[in-house]
Amino acid sequence: MSGFAFAIPGDIDLATGGYGYDRRVIAECGRAGCTVTHLALPDTFPFPSPEDLARSEERLKALPAGQPLLIDGLAMGALPASLLRGLDRPIAALVHHPLALETGLDNGQQARLMTSERAALSIASVVIVTSPATARLLERDLGIGRDRIVVAVPGNDPCPRARGTGAPMRLLSVGAVIPRKAHGILVDALARLAALDWSCRIVGSTDRDADEVHALRRRIETHGLEGRITLTGAVSEGALALEFDAADLFVSASLFEGYGMSLTEALARGLPIVATRTGAIPETVPPEASLLAPPNDAAGLAEGIRLLHDPDRRHAMAEAAWRRAETLPRWPRTATTIMATMQEIAR
Fold first, then answer.
1. Tell me, what DSSP letter sits at residue 15?
2. pTM (predicted TM-score)
3. Which residues of the chain fall short of a pLDDT of 70?
């Protein structure tokens, strides 16, 4: 096919899993000879102002007639169905996870997002999701027929094995400081392990939710862990690679993941994982390389970390993670799935 347009709200260079997926899809499609036109939409989604909706409609209608269009779910689920119908072109949606499942929304916001996303996705010819777990959610909660869903799991690059730090055991958690990532629960878990020898690096943006960042810093101070837990903020890809290399154990207290790209990056580095049993995580990480606790369970998370403080057990699970790294999907396959899908709806 000659190509398609990919509408994405906000700054595509932000260091998040969703934007990382979008960037890589565009790059891999280009390498395969398929031109993807990146169409930037306003950064206020999923709660756009009337002015931003009008601006989005103008940009979308300015695309070449008939050009297939892929819309990132952060915008797709908040675009009015009437606007989408008026575009008069083949449309696909890319859903990383349902908008209403973002932590921190009130009941009214959740209800409005569920309604708008259901209506918007009903317009799409096909809905691309990043995991089988998300596919099941869309079927169950949004009424999307399985025959309209395509799964395109994130890819991975071959990586050198993490060398670790050893003593103290270095923990790494990757994710923006927002309510859904529940870094505060991780801090509570680590407070239960203050007698053990460890340090923890939380790598991710600290400029998306000022209240959450303030609360997290206060929690760290309350537990007296300022010298052991570091918030790095967003870092470059090179700096993130160094963080993975120095880690001995990957941890995540996330309340929900539509896939969990940082988890597979940990596997690609041969890191054992302590995480939460929620969303797609149980399918993303293998049991032989991970210990999972219920979400919002600081005691369960602490127990997993305590068990892997033992070097022998940690080494055995690291070996399992390294073996799994050989079987992880690659990005060209992800892009091929999306290109084939866009070609199909263009017919």
1. S
2. 0.92
3. 1
